[in-house]
Amino acid sequence: MSLDGKVAIVTGAGRGLGLAYAQELARRGASVVVNDVDAAATAEAVAAIQASGGQAVAMVAPVGPTETAQQLVSTAVDSFGRLDILVTNAGVLRDTVLWKMTDEDFDTVINVHLRGTFTTVRETVRHLRAAGEGGRIICIGSPTGQRGTFGQTNYAAAKAGIVGMVRTWALELKRAGITANTVVPVAATAMTATVPYFAAAVRADENGEPMPAFFRHELGFGTADDVAGLIAFLGSDAAAGITGQVIGIGGDRLQLWTHPEAAVTAYHEGGWSYDALVEAWPTQFAGAVQSVGERFPELPEEFKAAAS
Question: Which family does the entry's similarity section mention (predicted)?
Fold first, then answer.
């Protein structure tokens, strides 16, 4: 099933994951608006898509402002006559522990990831609802938004917020035939290149070598191209019945994340007083306390040197 005749916007598409998404959508037949803040990278991305026989135009601007969202939609419609798919991928990092994080660190990440997703989706949905032909909203999440990561208060808040918005949008947009899903990629990118644990995998990807099976299979960690197929699938008619989901992908692994549910439910006549909690917690609740952060298996010996 191709994407012939479809038109997509991909934010943050100048390089890395966003570029892989834009290239795969174009390869499947979609015309693509390539957005990024780096004019040179955006021009190179458009040229690469066109050189491969695809259709693409550039739109250089930072996401977050409503004006950017409006320009993205108008660029798609003016250039290709319609709009069908939005992929909100643009992002930045300002990592530091809570007590060292500045207001600017927090606001910058929230503005690009969370507000940028909100404004771009809002403008896209206004167009899609008026057009009356349905559509696809694909927002990029992160394991950090699902589990938490040391030093990423701002990023965790933004990515968890995106998941909450997508679940709400799935409810609001159902009657209009517009799906909304979150993709949680795990891949070798500029963001993961700084994590020592993934060093051997990132090095292999940079050298054009096959990524070791330990990373691809055990960790679900792969290349940007490994994620792109899911993006194209969710943008297609084959995914018309899939909405409100959080789907993790990386390497050889695909995961359908659960929505939060109560791990334990208990009742106490008259309510839960301090004394009642002191008595009941060890036997009724302590065994179900949830873990935080991602837990990785020990690196095999052959990869430890790269991580040191």
Answer: Belongs to the short-chain dehydrogenases/reductases (SDR) family.
